[in-house]
Each structure stands twice: as C-alpha cells, then as structure tokens.
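Components:
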Amino acid sequence: MDLQTWTWILVGITFTLYIAIAIWSRAYSTGEFYIAGKGVHPIANGLATAADWMSAASFISMAGLISYSGYDGSVYLMGWTGGYVLLALLLAPYLRKFGKFTVPDFIGDRYYSNTARIVAVTCALIVSFTYVAGQMRGVGLVFSRFLEVNIDIGVLMGMFIVLFYAVLGGMKGITYTQVAQYCVLIFAFMVPAIFISIQMTGHVIPQLGFGSSGADGIYLLDKLDGLHQELGFHEYTSGSKSKLDVFFITAALMVGTAGLPHVIVRFFTVKKVSDARKSAGWALLFIAILYTTAPAIAVFARTNMIETVSDKKYEEMPQWFKKWELTGLISFNDKNNDGLVQYVGDKNRNELTIDPDIMVLANPEIARLPNWVIALVAAGGLAAALSTAAGLLLVISSSVSHDIIKKIINPNITENGELIAARLSAVVAVIIAGWFGINPPDFVAATVALAFGLAAASFFPAIILGIFYKRMNKEGAIAGMIVGILLMLFYMMKFKFDWFGGGSKEDWWFGISPEGFGTVAMFINFMVSLIISFFTPAPPKKVQLIVDNIRIPSGSNKPIDH
Amino acid sequence: MAAKDPKKYWRQNLKYLSILLSIWFIVSYVFGIILVEQLNTIKFYGFKLGFWFAQQGSIYVFVILIFVYIRLMNRLDNKYNLDK
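Structure:
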C-alpha cells in the first residue's frame, strides 16, 4: 500500500478513537469540566500529563533541533524534564491539597485579592495563547506533508477534532483522550527509533545504540564528531553556546515547565495529595521514554543524513529529498555548479539548507523504513499536537468562565450557566487558535520557547512563596508578578521583534539570550516580592491558616463552595 | 502525641526537599553544564561522560528522585497519621 493510503487509515482510526472516547466521557458538571471530578487514577493522570506536556515541539522539532545543535540541545532535554522534579517536590502536592480549579484560583485566594487574580489570569492567557498557536501550526504541517492537503484545511480538521472533545468532555474528556494520545505518540516515536537503532548499531534499545558502534567498529558519536570536523561544523558532543547562557536557558525551561498552568492544573484532577506526587513521578517516567530516545534519534538522523547527501550527485538524491524540497523545507543551491551537494559548516560554500523540523518526520524515510512506519509518525505528530492544544484550550476557557466570569464579573452565575460559559469560551478559544494556525504571525515560532520564560517570570515565584513563605503578602506577590512578566515581555520584544530600539547578540544583558532571560526575570520577581512584602503589612490570620493547611496532606480541604 | 506535630512534619519534609534538590542540581547543572568539559575527558562506553549526563544521565536521575520522594513522603505521612 502506498504511504498516503496508510496515513489516511492510521489518522482515521486514531481520530475515530478520540471522538469515541469524548462521547463516552462527557462532562456533566463544572467540577468534571474543569478538573475531571477529581477522580483520575495517578497512572492515568501520569499518561495524560505526559501527552499534555509533549507538544508538537517535543515530538516533531526537538530531535531535529538536537541533531543540529549537538550538545547545545541538552538545554531542552534537561530543561523540559528537570521541571518535573520541581513540580513533584515543590508545587503539585500543595496545590492539590488547596483543591481548587485553576492556578489563578490559588493566587487569588492565597493573596486575598481580586487584583492578584486578574494579574494571574492575564499571565495565564498570555502564556497559553503563545503556546497554542504553535500547536495548530504543527497540525497543519503534518497534514500538508503527509496527506498532501492544503495546510489551512489541515488546521481546520485539527480544530474540528479538538473542538469536539474539548467542548463536549472538558477536562474529563481531555484526560482520557490524552491517555490514548500518549499511547499513539510514544508508539509512533519508538517504532522508527528502534528500527533505525537496529539498522545502524544492532541494538534494540536506542538509548544504548547511540553510545555504541556501527558495523565498522567505530563508536557512532566519535564518527559523527569526525564527520562534523571534516565538514567544518562545530564538534557534535561539545557546545557552541556560552556556559552561562546554557545554564540560564536550562533553568528558564525547568522553572517554566513547573509554572505552566496547563501542566499544573493536571494535578488538580487526582483524588488525594499522595496521588498528586505519584502522578508527577509517572508523568516524568512516561516523558523520559521519549526524551531519552530523542538524542539517540538525533545522532542516527544526523549521521544518516550526512552520509546520504554529502558530496553526492544532486541528480541521484532519494525520493524523500525531492518531496521535502517541494514543501520548501529543504533547499539546494548549486553554488559551484558541480552537480554535487556540498553540505558544510562554511556558510559561503554550503549549498544545502534543511529545516530542523523535518528531521523526525523524514527520518523513517531517510532510513528507508516501510510505509506504515512513516504513516505512524504522522499519526503520532498529530496526537502530540492535539493533546497539548486541548490542554491549553481548557486552561483558556476555564480562565474566562471560572476566573473572570464566575469569580469577578458575576459570582451569582448558576452551575449550568457557568458550564455553558465554559463551553462557549472553549469554542472561541479554538477559533482564535485556528486563526493563528492559518495566519501565523512571524513571531509564533519565536514565542513558543519564550512562553516558558513568561511562566517562569510570572507564576513560579508567586506560587512557591505562597506555599513556603507564610509572611508573603498580596502587595509583594502582585508587584513581583507584574515586574517579572513585564521585564520578560520587554526583553523578548527588544531582542526578538526589534522593538524598543532592538539589539543584537552583542547587546544582550550579561550575554544572556531571550530564551534564558526568564531565569533573570524570575530572580527579579523573587526579589521584588520579598522586598515589598517586608515593608507592607503581613497577610491576615485566615490566609496564614490556609498555608498551614496546604502543607499537610490530610484533614479538611473544603474548597469554598461551588 | 509528639508524632502528630505538624511543624515537625514540615521540617522533615523540608529536609528531604533540600537533599533531593541538591542531587537534582548536581546531576544537571554541575555534571551536565559546569563541569562538562572535565567529565568529557572520561569515556564511558561510547559516550563522553559529561555529554552523557547532559543528554541521558540527568533525566534518569530525575525520575529516580521523584520516586524516592514519593516513598519518603508516604512513609512520613504514615508516621504522622496524615495519609487519610
């Protein structure tokens, strides 16, 4: 069977599965819509968190990015996993004990102020929208390449599916669809990785394969370092970024992970505090399967790619090369007219540009794996993008219906009214996200990575201080969040979009890139919060009791009535 | 009963946190970033050790850390009768 038929079949089966799950797990109350009625098993929650977390970027782009940047790619590997240690140890159990619906709920109650709540909702909306636009784009990319439909139609199909299960099922529907999506995406990621590992090294486990040797008896990594040296790229196993910047980017990604509202809210869905800890452990285990495989894929793909194209005749390039050329993601310019592909580190002589995004998608084709494996990768990419998009849309809709409408505008709204508001805001959010997917503003790609910086700069300090420092008051927390997010937005706009006079690499403060600046903004947020709280009155007794209460797993945790 | 003192429970929790987070910091920031060149002079299987910590080892340790924390806290909850 040809590739396109396989792709339609696998995408068709998985989409039917998601819809069936959505119908089976409809939400009937706001509690079910926002937090799945707090009845999710920790392992199921771990699976759902893993799918929620691993986005189009993790599935499609990460291995490609690592294969281009070598050691420098470690920032993503450590950054996007290490955050779970912070979540499990510093956030999840206490926020679960607090037992409300959203992150702004916690901020609003702990800092006894609707101003704090509004600041938190605004931050949540900024973070989630920057993130969701990238997901819809990922859906469009997969559709256009594998099903050869127009990218806009691809985005519309993705929107329809997400709309269906997010609006119908709320958190409950999303949770169980995400469990299925995790299974699809991990299978789709591992099968080609295992095939290629066996092909290149004879090892079934890719994590061991990329540290061993090929048929020629040379260690794969040594061989790749050699190829890189020969072609004038920097050595694969060492970095080109400054150590300070690597440190700051890793920290921003870790802390940002722990501060992302769509991840935090997943821990509100389990029965008890110990389950929140457990599901963080399971989530990281499930995530680690993909994250420890990605660097192996990066090495396999890089070696394979260089050996396939370097100094070979352009005329004799394999079929995948021509196909991706049509999408514009591979481009070849025969500068010296010798008919050979020169792929080298020197920009003036290099004739080939390859978009890192295609490495995972093209990898099975480069390794000449069977069509069904290639089609599986398409289904996996869609699962990754859709599961994350759904989680984000839920945060957006609950921010609007719960935090803004119920808590601020109209506290007397009925349960049913709130549920309708939640569904309507999900519809609106899907439409806006789809619009961004079809008309991606130039800054989308740049801002997805920066969403972490924004989360690190805004939420993380307010939540940590709220739990671990009883004396922290509303004045400190509000000032810290505002200064943190504004500073991060300023730095990002200045150095990414050239606003406020712009600036180049040389102008970065202390040599820290915008991606790493979230760490700086986070420290400043902490300092501002502590200094201001020192000069303003302590929080009321009642709030100090809330803090005492969330530090202990058992006992009453009656949420204020809903 | 002294065992029910929430302050003691909290202090013990903070102690666990500081130990586990120190390990978290060492395997990623120290081994994977700060001392990466020094560790890279050591070969481990086909890997340079610093590179391995940055792309593999730190992640394995993170998973283990969370499961150790789960065990420690379950035991602590039990001791203070807080596991209801």
